[in-house]
Amino acid sequence: MASIVIGGLSQRLSTRVAAATSALALFFVVCMGVGAWLVASGMMRAQVERQMGELAQARAVHVSGILDTIATGMSERGDRSVGTSENVRIGAIPVNVRYLGMADLGDWNKAAMILGVGAGRLSAENGGTIEMMQAINTGVASPSKALVWSVRLDHLTRRLAGSRGNDGGQLVVRVGGREASAAWGEKLTVSSVVAEAEVMLPNGFGRGQMVVRIGADAADLDLPLGQYALWLSIIGAAATALAVALATITSRRLTRTLSGLADAATAFAFDAGGSVDFHVAGDDEIARLGKAFAGMVERLDQAYRDLDQRSQALLSNAERVAQVGSAIWEPGQSRQVWSEQFHAILGLNPADVSASREVFFDRIHPDDRTRLATAIDAALQAGGRRVVEEFRIIRGDGVERVAQFRAEVARDDEGHPIRVDATIQDITERQRMEDQLDGVVRDLKRSNEELEQFAYVASHDLRQPLRTVRSYLTLIEDSIEDKLDDETREFMDFIRDGVKRMDALITDLLTYSRVGRRVADGPVDTGRMIDLSLLDLQAEVDETQAIVDVPDGLPVVEGDSGELTRLFQNLIGNALKYRNAEQVPHIAIKCRDLGAFWQFSVIDNGIGIPPEHRERAFGIFQRLHGRHEYEGTGIGLAICRKIVERQGGEIWVENTPDGGATFRFTWPKMRRQVTTLGL
Amino acid sequence: MVGMRNVEGGYHILLVEDDLADAGLVRIALRKGRHAVTLHHARDSAEAFGFLRRIGANFTESPRPHLILLDLNLPGRSGHEILQELKNDPALRGIPVIVLSTSEAERDIVRSYNLGANSFISKPMDADEFAHHIHTMETYWFDIVRLPA
Q: Considering its fold, how many domains does chain A have in total?
């Protein structure tokens, strides 16, 4: 579609260039034509006028000659009687000659005759007749008679017509306010070019004027002009046609390179593949443009190749590091595109194989092929989308690896699968570790179950004999009360104490073993937990009249409420138990925000713990004091440590400056990833 | 060997307990009590149901007990299993069962009540306390509560 548009554009461009050039050419031709016409016709007219002027002059000379001849002929004529009249031909022109006596002169100017001067006049006879009078002296000093000759104008013009060619003209005579004219030929028209020449009248004719007026026929003048115009038109048309043709060809040639350039640019812009050839021959602007385009394409191509190489390298590195290989293919096509790492995971060299479904499946363990193929086919079905399957690869060196195959099907708007994007990852190591971890988990579970069984046995079976001993000791004591001496009574107290301590040890051990079991971690308000533990310790607090400072605004933490209560109860209980006999117990509870942790402190003014015993204090059944001083099995702080450490915190003891002990523990704000093992 | 003693009139209690020492504690406590109670002692499931259902030569005359005191930790079938069978038997279901166990485990308590136990008593460590518990139990079941005739 794009190429059609481009073609249309180039067509229009060339047409426009051609039309513009043609119009310019036509304009010049018309201007030249009109100018040439004006110049040529003016020149022609001038030429004709000049020639006609000469012609008129020649006619005038001719007429003048005829008249001279007649006049001369009259002068040489012999005397005739007055009153005679005759017609003679002089120079083939009929002339009427009359002899007049003085009396007959009439309106002729007598004076002119007397003076011997001729006189001429124009009469209207026969369309115009020139008359001339000459006095004749017949031996006497004064004239006695006169000779009058008259020539008709039309006879004169006939003579002119006969003497010279087939032209036409007019003879005009003005004498004494009269005018007469005669014409010959028919070419003298108003529109034609007219030339005039004055005719020399014979001496003595008097004041008169005679002109020859000749004109060229319009046709005579127009014909060459018409031919000239015709030629001009033909030449103009031919020039125009030539100009149009040349303009078209030139514009075609110009726009062909341009449209070739445009086509190449379009191909480059819209076509993904294929090389693009820009017209670079020549040195004109288009060639330079072509070269510029070619340069741009080259640079773009180079940049694209660089980018492609870089991204390929990047992808390749990323895949190698992540040990993930990627592949793309179109459903139904055998040919696929695999990344380097994809090849590597399959144990193939990209140079040796051509990526295809067959090659891929060839590398898969025969037992896994059907399952994987079915999974991929299912994903290609309507509604399918993802595949996540694990399978075994048998590499060329015979090594078996475990890989995970993941694929996603891309679909068009109508839901047809168009592309499959797949990755494979070598998970052999991971699976081996998972297997190991599974084994550890199984072991832990089993040991956990055993521990639970132990706890149950401890709670029931271990205590049962103790109970029997203790119960019957009481019964025996009751029955032989009066027979006991002090020593025996003391022995029996020892037995009772031993049994009691054994029972306490069992109970505490059970409690210790139960830390972290069957707990429900969740948000716990530590302030409330401290209140609860103080409630349990109410008797001791009252007894010792201890002061316990609990700040407001203690945080809510993640943990088990029972465990947190026990933690605070043990720590506060310890502070009460190991009080300094000489002062009122003062216990302060503090909490600091350490960012990722809360740090709680239980500060007392009791007897404190010597530095060398600080670590030991948290050991199970570790006691720092004799039973005669302080009761207890020595499990309390061990339980505290177990509770704190289960949450990822730490517990330790410091000395309070005035001699007491400060127990501190940290409690993470973010809940630790607690395993399902309940450890 | 069934330690069994019939006392005319008064209450009959069946104690299911394999520990003779504990059984002795119960017996002594009951002896010191205010009520005339005949204690029948069965040491396992077989003896208990033999007594209750009058199966076997020794139990032809056995009375229907007013209460059953049941230990959980027994040889063979456990106390829970006995409890389950008792409560599933329409003829025996009506007899209140008091679990008397050394166990303090929550799961034992919950399971006992779920199976229909009427009370759960943890055996105290101390003999005097034990006697006190038994006497309180007597007061509750024989003086306060009305039992089926």
A: 4
